[in-house]
């Protein structure tokens, strides 16, 4: 009977229990703390994404179209601002309108040509 009790207690003891009885403790690494933190972050990220999808006022197609329109507007504004800054810089260093200005050329890759239909292989 005592042997059975001791065996069951010995099976239920973990290495942390034995180290604790000896006044020792297992050294925890940064990795031991990083795993639960990472899992909590991923769970929070998934929950936030799900809530955002449930509460979105528009459909996915409408949101993508809005993002595309805003990106095009931003690109146009950046191009205009860059042209104005270039003109200001040219006038500041003394390049007037009398000298020819280099024109920016549109760079077309094979992918962009195929999207616009100008790269015909037939």
Fold and architecture overview:
This protein has 122 residues and is mainly α. Helix content is 69%, strand content 0%. The chain is built from five helices and no strands. The protein has helices at residues 2-12, 15-21, 30-55, 60-92, 110-116. It is elongated, with a radius of gyration of 33 Å. The mean pLDDT is 77.
Walk me through the topology.
Blueprint: H1 2-12, H2 15-21, H3 30-55, H4 60-92, H5 110-116
Keywords:
single chain; 122 residues; mainly alpha; 69% helix; elongated
State mean pLDDT (0 to 100 scale). Answer: 77
Share in helix: 55-70%
Total beta strand runs: 0
| Number of helices, where a helix is a run of at least 4 consecutive DSSP H or I residues | 5
Could you say which structural class the secondary elements and strand pairing correspond to?
A: mainly alpha
- Describe the biggest sheet? none
The ordered H/E elements are HHHHH
End-to-end separation in angstroms reads 91 Å
% residues in beta strands? under 5%
Tell me the radius of gyration: 33 Å
Overall, the morphology is: elongated
Low-pLDDT ranges: none
Tell me briefly what this model is:
The chain has 122 residues and is mainly α.
């Amino acid at each position: 009977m005592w042997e059975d009790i001791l065996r069951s207690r010995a099976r239920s003891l973990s290495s942390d229990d034995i180290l604790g009885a000896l006044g020792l403790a297992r050294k925890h690494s940064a990795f031991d703390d990083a795993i639960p933190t990472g899992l909590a972050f991923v769970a929070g990220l998934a929950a936030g994404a799900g809530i955002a999808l449930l509460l979105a006022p528009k459909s996915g197609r409408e949101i993508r179209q809005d993002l595309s329109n805003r990106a095009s507007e931003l690109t146009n504004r950046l191009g205009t601002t860059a042209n104005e800054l270039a003109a200001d810089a040219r006038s500041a260093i003394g390049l007037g309108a009398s000298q020819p200005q280099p024109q920016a050329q549109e760079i077309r890759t094979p992918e962009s040509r195929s999207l616009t239909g100008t790269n015909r292989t037939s």
